[in-house]
Design brief:
It is built from 13 helices and 10 strands. By secondary structure, it is an alpha/beta fold.
């Protein structure tokens, strides 16, 4: 495993992080989830990402139990707040009430006194940004989080939050967007803003919901048990990539991966890590061997010619429109 600073902060994290969205507490049984966490630890991963909303709060609890007994100072545990976690009108969003209550609930489920990074899971258009940032600052000053970050915020939203964070003297250090060789919407605006402000990217879905593994074939049904057949929500995210023109081009990557001595999944994870503003790529798993395979992307350096060839193959079917980030900022309240 190799390690990177999270943006320009002093926090050092594993360049491959383990995330438990759509798996822990949902797709896989707890024994399998724990086995995946053990595989991550054995591979040198120290950074673990979750959120209060995953599996209706169960994912945090599963991760907390899986990490119990580990040396806390040797881990970086990240979680998020925004999406509904209860039936009440204040059980959602980025109001002061929801943030202050949610951090305590997350810490209880994770069985820890603090998280290393507390992230706004989306931008809340119905709460003043000043209220949100002041609440985050108080979470940090209380010792319940060391740093704060955002997820799926636009460049303008990040700039506004950073200005307030600077005034409040609170460390806003990261952005967590979707990013892969097929989903490149952050390249035009978010990454330049974050490079200027000193935020690092912790990217999710580096293998495009499994599409960049090559397991989905053009003209063929999705494999049984794959993300595309997950009725609990996973299929909603992968459908956009399941077009024959996309799948045909993914298959064209096989000779490049073979020449580099990588699997397609490893190539996809290594690709996002070539971006200097990316501090970590989040991988998920339903089986320990998936972790063992994907962590081999750590430390891989792809040469310029290979990157040029990948771009020629995938760019025609990749999404670049920065407005696709903005649409990920819905209202939290009904």
């Amino acid at each position: 495993m190799e390690f990177r600073h999270l943006g320009r902060s002093g926090l050092i994290i594993s360049e491959i992080a383990y995330g438990n969205w759509l798996t822990h507490g949902s797709q896989v049984e707890e024994d399998a989830a724990t086995a995946c966490v053990r595989a991550a630890l054995d591979a040198g991963i120290t950074t673990f990402d979750t959120a209060d909303v995953y599996a209706e709060t169960r994912a945090e609890a599963v991760l907390g139990r899986a990490l119990k007994g580990e040396r806390r100072e040797g881990l970086e545990i990240f979680t998020k707040v925004y999406w509904p976690t209860g039936p009440g009108r204040n059980d959602r969003g980025l109001s002061r009430k929801h943030i202050m209550e949610s951090i305590d609930n997350s810490l209880r489920r994770l069985q820890t006194d603090y998280v290393d990074l507390y992230q706004a899971h989306r931008y809340d258009v119905s709460t003043p940004l000043e209220e949100t940032m002041t609440a985050f600052a108080d979470v940090v000053r209380s010792g319940k989080a060391h740093y704060i970050g955002v997820s799926e915020w636009t460049a303008e939203q990040i700039r506004n939050a950073h200005a307030l964070a600077h005034e409040l003297k609170v460390p806003l250090v990261s952005s967590q967007p979707q990013y892969s060789a097929l989903w490149r919407v952050i390249e035009a605006e978010v990454i330049p803003a974050c490079e200027e402000l000193g935020l690092g990217q912790i990217v999710w879905s580096p293998i495009a919901q499994g599409v960049l593994t090559g397991k989905y074939l053009p003209g063929a049904p999705a494999p049984v048990g794959s993300r595309a057949t997950d009725e609990k929500g996973g299929a909603n995210f992968v459908t956009r990539f399941l077009r024959d023109d996309v799948l045909e081009r993914v298959q064209q990557l096989r000779p490049l991966a073979d020449a580099a001595g990588l699997t397609l999944a490893q190539l996809a994870v290594a690709w996002v890590l070539q971006n200097g503003n990316v501090s970590a790529a989040i991988i998920g798993a339903s089986r320990p061997e998936q972790v063992t395979e994907n962590v081999k992307a750590a430390g891989v350096r792809l040469d310029a010619e290979l990157l040029k060839q990948m771009d020629a193959i995938l760019a025609p079917v990749a999404e670049f429109d920065p407005e696709r980030t903005a649409q990920n900022s819905p209202k939290a309240r009904p």
